[in-house]
Q: What sequence folds into this?
């Protein structure tokens, strides 16, 4: 991920509010992904998979 | 059919982990929450109707489990910030400081707003799916995301009275559960 520039203030021009809010939303989205996406890429704990696979096996056998 | 259920559950685990972080703001608590939700989902899988929205069903279970746990722990535990050290953030000092400010601001948001924001921004869920997962109206889901964005903008940019304009623009309609809404947790109805 690239740098995370500070979100800009409204520019005060006519119609500037809507444009600035959109820019903030884009910045927010990018920053949230930067902060949290790594968790999606981490290995799934073995205990979670064991729970699921044991249940799958039990239901197949039942 | 059961194989499909289990495959869907495994595929959803990374997103459940993110949603658990949104709710708990604490990594260890998030891991416990997902594991408990997985156990609940497996026990309740016969109540899931194939062909319906599995992600929404699973998010409801995660959410209800969180509410249940929170009730038990309310007197002893406050919600922590996710430690900044746990963020794999590279870049300049200024970048890290901005993200740290954002992290603090996220922690100040009402839980229902943070939850809805994460569902939309990080998981790509539609407002309809957020509404289905959190037991609120679509308009309420939209309002929560809107308010979260505007509140964060106000805090991070130092603007005053953000919610006054937010309320004018996107009023949140009460769903008859205001007492619980005051906790920022929405509808407490259990699904499992």
A:
């Amino acid at each position: 991920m690239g740098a995370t520039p500070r979100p800009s203030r409204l520019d005060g021009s006519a119609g500037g509010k809507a444009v600035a809010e959109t820019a903030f939303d884009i910045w927010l989205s990018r920053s949230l992904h930067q902060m949290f996406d790594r968790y999606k890429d981490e290995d799934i704990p073995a205990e979670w998979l064991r729970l699921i696979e044991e249940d799958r096996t039990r239901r197949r056998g039942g | 059919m059961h194989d499909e259920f289990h495959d869907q559950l495994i595929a959803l685990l990374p997103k459940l982990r993110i949603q658990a972080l949104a709710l708990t703001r604490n990594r260890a608590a998030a891991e416990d929450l997902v594991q408990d939700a997985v156990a609940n989902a497996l026990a309740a899988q016969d109540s899931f109707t194939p062909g319906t929205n599995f992600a929404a069903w699973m998010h409801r279970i995660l959410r209800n489990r969180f509410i249940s746990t929170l009730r038990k722990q309310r007197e002893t535990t406050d919600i922590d910030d996710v430690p900044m050290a746990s963020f794999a953030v590279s870049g300049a000092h200024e970048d890290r400081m901005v993200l740290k400010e954002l992290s603090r601001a996220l922690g100040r948001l009402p839980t229902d707003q943070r939850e809805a924001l994460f569902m939309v921004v990080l998981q790509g869920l539609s407002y309809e799916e957020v509404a289905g997962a959190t037991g609120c109206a679509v308009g309420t889901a939209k309002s929560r995301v809107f308010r979260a964005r505007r509140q964060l903008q106000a805090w991070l940019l130092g603007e005053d009275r953000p919610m006054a304009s937010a309320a004018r623009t996107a009023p949140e309609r009460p769903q008859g559960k205001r007492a619980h809404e005051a906790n920022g947790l929405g509808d407490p109805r259990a699904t499992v």
Q: What stands out?
A: Residues 80 and 183 of chain B are 16 Å apart (CA to CA). Chain B touches chain A at residues 2-3, 6, 9-10, 13-15, 17-18, 21, 31, 34-35, 38-39, 42, 45, 87-92, 94-95, 98-99, 102-103, 117-118, 121-122, 149-150, 152-153, 156-157 (CB under 8 Å). Residues 1-80 of chain B form a domain with the Rna Polymerase Sigma Factor; Chain: A fold (CATH 1.10.1740.10). The longest helix of chain B spans residues 2-24.
